[in-house]
Amino acid sequence: MNDSQTATKFDIPLVVNGKTITVHAFPMERLLDVLRVQIGLTGTKEGCGEGECGSCSVLVDGALVNSCLIPVLQASGTHITTIEGLATDKRLHALQQAFLDFGGAQCGICTPGMILAAVHLLSKNPQPTGADIREGLSGNLCRCTGYLQIFEAVADAAVRCRQ
Amino acid sequence: MTKDRIVGKSVPRLEGRDKVTGASRYVDDMELPGMLYGATVRSRIARGKIKSITFLPTVKWDEFVVVTAKDIPGKNCIALIGDDQPCLAQELINHPEEPILLLAHPDRNLLAKAVEAVSIEYDPLPPIFTIEESEKLSEIIWGTDNNFKSYLIEKGNVENAFKNADFMVEAEYATGAQEQLYIENNGMIAVFDPQQGVTVWGSLQCPYYVHRALMELCGLPEDRVRVVQLETGGAFGGKEEYPSMLAAHATLLAVKSGKPVKIVYDRMEDMAATTKRHPSRTRHRTAVSKDGKILGGEIEFTIDGGAYKTLSPVVLSRGALHAGGPYYWPSVRIRAKAMATNAPPHGAFRGFGAPQSLFAMERHMDFIAQTLGISPIEVRRRNFLKPGQTTTTEQVINEQIGLGKLLDRALELSDYRTKKEKFAQANLSADRKNGIGIAAFLHGAGFTGSGERYLNSLVGVETCPDGTVRVLVSSTEFGQGTKTVLCQIAAEALGLRYEDVGIAQPDTQKVPNSGPTVASRTIMVVGKLVHSAALAIVQTLRSGGLLGEVYSPEEFRAACRKHVAQNGTFRSLARYQQAEDISWDEENYRGAAYAAFAWAVYVAEVTVDLTSYSVTVDDFVCLQEVGRVLHPVLAAGQIIGGVAQGIGFALYEKVIWDKGRMKNGQMTNYIMPTSADIPPIRVFFEELGNVHGAFGAKGIGELPVDGPAPAIVNAISNALGISFNSVPLLPEDIFEALSSNVSHDTLPALADSKQ
User: Fold this and answer.
1) How many of the other CB atoms lie within 10 Å of CB of B273?
2) Distance between CA B722 and CA B739 in Å, rounded?
């Protein structure tokens, strides 16, 4: 994504999972690589590197993005949420708990991105219908589950979040 | 059965918390100090000889580590069934993704440019790309006849059956390649130390396959090769054999550089270079009586193995052994063969040959029904295997199966009869035509024939000095729930709580060889051994007077601590022993092919849109008998996920070949089902139990991939009144069939008159 022998690195401020940090990176470096390699947040996964599978999904200022398609400069000054930012004080987020209870995670590689897509869905639509859930998660591919147990998990978490 | 406390309950997935919090460590999450990144230079032609290799001056080559076939310390092969596949091509090229050179550099961003800067000249040879070209022998690309393996299964007198037939029903069926498409690409890290030898960490299914391959490659003894499985992001058979290749490549770079080396494929390389489901062709020629009974038949099952033998003989075997479906054949002749082509080797993918031959069998049953003018339901019912009858290999069915009952229940749950009638009426005038189809099938659990005896699996359960218990197996978790269910089994047997039992990460230095994690064998075969090893611990503690008849987890821990203090490490091992009623004649392919079969009837309901020619699956009923269900949520997850892969196999997933190379190796243009494509998949289990498996379990993982393609294509054929005999079946195929009256059999949509 960059030619490290000719380009120049910049200081880029980010707010990641509530913490303000500055990374020193090439402007066109993928946000995915900066999160994983520089910041060490390896919960964000690479599945295809071209924005098809959604495994690298993170929230940037509340919007769901594929971090493999975002140059880090574009994220400068934004608030980023990764999977590591969801659980608080060892207490799982309602969606994480529901994924555990309903079998929403099998091999686990799509799970971080899938859960963030679900967080995004519930933030926009706290009472999603079955069709809303299908649509809301359709940018995130899962090869293990066949999705149905993920739908159940999201529907259950939606109820838990409203309570 | 009701007395079980843990088995049969949906306990939390053992490693689930790490997976939902992002804490799980997969291979690309692991970094070692001073690590280099590796890349592979591959051939660009399908067949030929390497003439020259030039390193173009656009790259600072002195910064790179370069490995060629000459750097291999031991044998230049990836040891598996045969030793025909080189680790790196030396001269001869047999497929367009053949690895030739390896490169490593501390900056992974510089690798792509360096791979491009290696210029290779070839003397090309004529390649072959199809089963038919391979059979013609115009070019011999493997052995003396392009044939990796053949099998012949014979039962009864087929010629007599042909003589006595009221109808001869003949047709040919085909299935395409399918990419496993695990979301985590293949990846491996290797470290070499002159004293300790090689250690690799990676994404893999079978640690001891990799172990053996590295021993041969490096010429090292077994205690100087160590293989550790990391969290593995999906596999489905796609990480059964290929990790040995990747581990070999990372190892060669680590040996040459003296540094840790990581190779992680990107999606395009993974899709292009690694194995896929074997394309297949099946020909059926069946003698049938006028009342719909199969009298006998010939089945020719042929698979395209790609350029090297790899696992093709075993895939072929399983395909051949499932080719007759769940039916009674008074006589049958099954000829199976695996042929070589100049494509990357095809390999293991969930189902392992059975989805291919069962697609043919189950489409053929509908064709027989249409030919005779009886319903697809009746033709199946009249031919179902019954207890006491024999399979195509003359294995006596001594399970109390009731396929008729499974069928009845599936018809009821899917409302089959009402819907079929309703669709037949409504379809006359509609632009969106509905159809409903069924598939009945079986799947053998565990290795074929004497395979389990050769594997000779060993399992351990040990108590640690603090009194806790650990299961020791090389069986791997890659989504199915291996760790969870094996811990359930151990906890149940030990009389402990689920949370009292742990399991070691598969590491060839720490766990015994419990065999590969394939063939729906883990819970049935390995689970049973875990059960035995655990029971032996209780027995030892009791006979030593350390444990009473009734005990609490605390008392158990105290007893273990005492035993360890007195006797040191307390490890209970259990080795596989073949049951007496399982005997197999490998030479004649006759006898008990599998210790147990799972049985199923699936029903698919579809809509075909005559404007876009697209197919939607509207409802999917899965009824199966898989022995006892040890974890309802995980078991349902296996079925739903398998059906989703089967839907992809039937309707979306088409590998487009261009001179032996996958042309659409991206998620953008190789289409797998998304959340918007999945119908309600309704899962039902009949639980009859099974004497060979832990707590009555049979294999479950592969079964659900066998049924969807035939059920869906039967439903589409029902909707349109046209026979489709191959998958994947894309909208353009349906368009073409509907536009041409010549090239396809046009058959009337039949009502079920004889139900």
Assistant:
1) 23
2) 12
CB contact under 8 A, A106 and B678: no
- Give the three-state DSSP class for B218: helix
Which residues 169-198 of B are in CB contact (within 8 Å) with A?
A: 180-185
CA-wise closest residue to B519 among B745, B349, B303: B349
Query: Measured between CA atoms, how close is A158 to chain B, in angstroms?
Result: 17
- Residue B672: its chain A contacts at CB < 8 A? 141, 143
My answer on whether B444 and B479 are in the same domain is: no
- Same domain (yes/no): B516, B603: no
| Residue where a domain terminates, one of B518, B548, B575 | B575
Find the length of chain B: 755
Q: Smallest CA–CA separation between A67 and chain B, in Å? A: 15
Terminus-to-terminus CA distance in chain A, angstroms? 45
Residue range(s) defining the domain that contains residue B244: 31-125+180-273
pLDDT in tens, B257-294: 999 999 999 999 999 999 999 999 999 999 999 999 99
SS3 B99: strand
* Binary contact (B675, A151; C-beta < 8 A): yes
Whole-number pLDDT of residue B467: 82
Residues with Cβ within 8 Å of B161's Cβ and at least 6 positions away in sequence, in order, are B287, B295, B296, B297, B330, B331
CB-based contact B21 A83, cutoff 8 Å: yes
B432 with B485, same domain: the answer is no
Q: How many domains does chain B have?
A: 3
Q: Beta strands B661-662 and B657-658: pairing type? A: antiparallel
Does B525 fall in a domain? yes
Domain-embedded: residue B158: no
The string of DSSP letters for B250-286 reads HHHHHHHHSS-EEEE--HHHHHHHS--BPPEEEEEEE
Mean pLDDT for the stretch of residues A118-145: 98
B260: number of Cβ within 10 Å: 21
Same-domain status, B432 and B456: no
Closest-CA residue of B relative to A36 is B29
In a domain, B209, yes or no: yes
Residues B423 and B297 grouped into a single domain: yes
Question: Which among B182, B202, B198, B190 has a CA at the least distance from the CA of B28?
Answer: B202
Spatial contact of B369 and B381, defined as CB atoms under 8 Å apart: no
Residue B535 sits at the chain A interface (C-beta within 8 Å): no
Burial of B528 (0-12, 13-18, 19+ CB in 10 A): buried
Q: Is the pLDDT of residue A103 over 70?
A: yes
Tell which residue, B164, B189, B259, B222, has the closest CA to residue B30: B189
Q: What 3-state DSSP class applies to B340?
A: strand
Q: Do residues B203 and B97 share a domain?
A: yes
* All structural domains of chain A: 10-85 (3.10.20.30), 94-162 (1.10.150.120)
pLDDT of amino acid B749: 38
3-state secondary structure (DSSP) of residue B641: helix
Domain membership flag for residue B165: no
Cβ within 8 Å, pair B21-A86 = yes
d(CA B601, CA B597) in angstroms, rounded, equals 13
Could you tell me if B383 and B363 lie in one domain?
yes
CATH code, domain carrying B601: 3.30.365.10
pLDDT given at position B741:
53
- Cβ atoms of B490 and B471 closer than 8 Å: yes
Query: What are the tens digits of pLDDT across the range B53-80?
Result: 999 999 999 999 999 999 999 999 999 9
To the nearest whole Å, the CA of B437 is away from the closest chain A CA by 21
B549: tokens are: 């008849």
- Chain B residues close to A115, C-beta within 8 Å: 20
Q: Are residues B494 and B427 in the same domain?
A: no
Q: ipTM, 2 decimals? A: 0.97
The residue that leads in pLDDT, A7 or B445, is: B445
